[in-house]
Specification:
3 helices, 7 strands, two-stranded antiparallel ribbon, globular
C-alpha cells in the first residue's frame, strides 16, 4: 500500500515514529478516492513534520459503515484552528475531500497536538478485504 510506504519513508527521513494501521479496506478502492486520501495524508504528515514538533504520529485508515475514514494524529505543539493560516495546505485538503463528496475535520489545541480526520463514502462496487 502506497500510504504505508509514505509513512515509512517520512519516518526514516525525519527520525519520527509513525504508526500506520489499516483495517477492512475495500479492494479495489476507486482510484479518485485512493488518490485523494493519499494526497491528504501526505499533506497532513508533512504538516506534522514541519509544524508539530512531535516525535510520533499515528495514521489509521478504516472502512466502516460504507465510509472510508482516515485519522492522522500527532502529539506535538497543536494550534488554534479558528485562526487563519497563511498556507494553502488545509484549504487544499478540504477541497480534495469536497471533490470526492467527503469532509475534513480538524481538532487541535495548543500543546495537545492535532487530529485530522478525512472521511468519504465508499462506492457500492467495492468488495471488502482486510489489509495491514
Amino acid at each position: 500500500m502506497a500510504l504505508k510506504e509514505v509513512c515509512h519513508q517520512l519516518a526514516k527521513q525525519h527520525g519520527l515514529k509513525i504508526h500506520f494501521a489499516a483495517d477492512n479496506l475495500p479492494f479495489p478502492l476507486h482510484e479518485d478516492l485512493a488518490l485523494c486520501f493519499y494526497r491528504v495524508a501526505q499533506e497532513a504528515l508533512n504538516n506534522a513534520v514541519k509544524h508539530s514538533g512531535s516525535t510520533g504520529v499515528d495514521v489509521k485508515v478504516v472502512a466502516r459503515d460504507g465510509s472510508l475514514i482516515m485519522t492522522v494524529r500527532d502529539y506535538g505543539a497543536g494550534f488554534d484552528p479558528s485562526r487563519s493560516t497563511s498556507g494553502l495546505g488545509l484549504a487544499t485538503m478540504r477541497e480534495r475531500m469536497r471533490l470526492v463528496g467527503g469532509e475534513l475535520l480538524l481538532s487541535s489545541r495548543a500543546s495537545e497536538g492535532t487530529v485530522l480526520t478525512a472521511q468519504a463514502r465508499l462506492g457500492s462496487s467495492s468488495r471488502r478485504t482486510t489489509a495491514a
